[in-house]
Amino acid sequence: MFFDPVSGKPRLWYWRHDKGDYEFFDGPGFHPQNGQPLQSFTRDMLTQYQQEIEEKARQIKAEQDRIEAQQKAQKEADAQKQLDQQQKAAADERKRAEALQRMSDAARQCDQLAANPDDARRVGEGVSYPTLKPQAAEAVDACSLASKQNPNELRFQYQLGRALEQAGDGSVRIKNRQSALEIHQSLVKAGYPAAFDNLGSLYRWDRKDLATAAALFRKGAELGDSDSMLSLADMIENNQVIPQGPNETPLELYKRAAELGNQDGVRAYQTELANAQQMQQQRVQQLQQQQMMLQIMGNVLRNIH
């Protein structure tokens, strides 16, 4: 009982935190930590406390509903974008296959041996760096010839630079990577989107110039290059650069890359989204626990009357 059954005087005292939370005590006096005087828990305060509990319960329920609705909408939006992405990827693949048939032998070999699978201007499927490395010397020869035969097709220059990054060992490799850097510099000036990530990576890893690398990744991301988005996200996650606004979080960058069909982006986005959803679920569980405690307190208070 919070009140004496005979006199009706309070048997409970309280102190209220500036956030609105209450601490209850079974006698008058002062708060043991801050020394502030305790207040008697009157019947008017009981009514106010009950109203606050009910309002808090409504807020918790509304927050829980909002989180669940947000999760549902996110899943539906991602499913639709995945479908659109698959349809676009199929159409793009048909176009690339048709273009590949029209190429010269050197051009066809260059596309087959050195194309970046995430270059929006590629022809063919493209190859990863682990696949490119053992065939880099052959790719350099093919792409050098293709570039001479098609000087206005920047794709072959880009793929030549990409092959040079992986070709050779020791001092030859160093020289090739310098040549690749110069090719990518020229392509960046020409606005070739995929070259921004390659040039940025050379500045990041070879020259240890993080500021220039971040600037290149940002520009590549603006131009729609998914690899640049992933590289920028990686720098942010490693605390090598500070994000410039809400659209430059790793989650947003991974999402944009995934929507462009970048498979590394898809995997990174799914992992990041799962982590975010887990945090939201923990928040829902915390809200549910608070709601249960409020219900218990509400039941106790109702039984007083």
Give a description of the structure:
This protein is mainly alpha-helical and 305 residues long. It folds into three domains: 59 residues, no CATH class; 94 residues, no CATH class; 91 residues, Serine Threonine Protein Phosphatase 5, Tetratricopeptide repeat (Alpha Horseshoe), CATH 1.25.40. The protein has eleven helices and three strands; from the N terminus they run βββααααααααααα. It is elongated and about 105 Å long. The chain starts with 12 loop residues before the first strand and ends with a helix. The mean pLDDT is 90.
- If strands are numbered along the chain, what order do they take across the biggest sheet? 2-1-3
User: Structural class of the helix and strand makeup?
Assistant: mainly alpha
As for the number of domains, it is: 3
List unreliable stretches of 5+ residues.
none
Helix content: 55-70%
Please trace the helix and strand order, writing H or E for each element: EEEHHHHHHHHHHH
User: Radius of gyration over alpha carbons?
Assistant: 31 Å
Query: What's the total count of β strands?
Result: 3
Mean of the pLDDT scores?
Answer: 90
Number of helices: 11
From the N-terminal CA to the C-terminal CA, the straight-line distance is 9 Å
Oligomer: single chain
Tertiary shape: elongated
Query: Quick one: biggest sheet?
Result: 3 strands, antiparallel
Helix-strand blueprint:
Layout lengths: L12 E4 L5 E4 L13 E2 L2 H59 L3 H10 L14 H4 L3 H14 L4 H13 L3 H20 L3 H14 L3 H13 L3 H12 L12 H10 L3 H40 L3
Antiparallel strand pairs: 1-2, 1-3
Helix pairs in contact: 1-11, 2-4, 2-5, 4-5, 5-6, 6-7, 7-8, 7-9, 8-9, 9-10, 10-11
